[in-house]
Amino acid sequence: MRSMDLQRLICPARRTSLRADVTAIEGDDVIEGVLIAEGGGPYAVRGGIPDFVSDDVARSQTVQSFGQKWAKHQYYREHTRDFYTDWYLQRYGFVDRAGLRRALEDVRFALDAGTGSGRDAANFAELSDATVYAADTSREALGVARREVTNPRVAFVQADLNHLPFPDEFFDFISCDQVIHHTPDPRTTFENLRRKLRTGGTICCYVYKKKAVLREFTDDYVRDQIRDLSLDQAMRVCDGITHLGQALARLNVDIEIEQDIPVLGIRKGKMDLQRFFHWNIMKCFWNDEFDFFTNHIVNVDWYHPEHCFRYEPETFRAWFDHGWNVQAWDVQHAGISCRARKV
Ligand SMILES: C[S@@+](CC[C@H](N)C(=O)[O-])C[C@H]1O[C@@H](n2cnc3c(N)ncnc32)[C@H](O)[C@@H]1O
Question: Which of 34, 71, 102, 122 has its CA 20 to 30 A from that of 232?
Fold first, then answer.
């Protein structure tokens, strides 16, 4: 991390400034060292990434699950970048890259909260002049992302969203996409993010939507079966699920549901059979643009993490009832996206 980006970090526990004891530097990039705080820390900088994650958080099942995912799937970002970038731009009402560029025009500091492979952080840096902090609990994710994302304005930091090493009201823009529902108490995490956003700043936040009855049952049932397994073992257990998704997609047939089945939360209408299964019976994701391994990771990273909360749209919308001006709202089968300005 560039030394000027490092200097803005604070001790998340004491909220005091940090003194850097640097042992390796490349150009302006601090590679190794330790961050010392009065009464807190110390926090190591390893491989250019400062580490603020406590042992308790690092050991949690969800954090471990994602760590194993990112260690296993190193080309995930490249393989899925265009698909997920387009989806992001639509859901938050930016429409296209020019729209996102306009929204980021005056942004000095942006946070990609739960950056994973760093795809969105790279987009934010490319489309603005902002310094983009990309935070994640997973060192494996950050290690891969730091290798791949070469823009010097992206600064990677290993941190839990509930204990971020930044002053309150620091960020002009926070994106927390497909992450907050994996934290132990998403509502509290949301308030913690809100504190880090300046008044007038913008947040983009996505949560999973509650699905139909059978799908919710299968989700919880499979999660219960595999949560204590390693990701490798879980992938073996779930192998048939991805194969089923592939087989259903290959049929390429629509099913016509002639009337609503309210007791099961199933809506009438015409739908591809694989999609029908996926949304109503069990997550069996399949996208022909991805290889089998990537499709399988998408399925397993749904079932494996212990924390995976799903929301009714009105419950999520209520998060924005006070102190927010909602600018974009999008509800899909998969999840709910909201862009809002803090007022
Ligand atoms: C499904 S991935 C989404 C990654 C990225 N936002 C994207 O859209 O590709 C969820 C990410 O959230 C991270 N994560 C989960 N809990 C977290 C927490 N408490 N603090 C920071 N990151 C967290 C995981 O390590 C993982 O990389």
Answer: 122
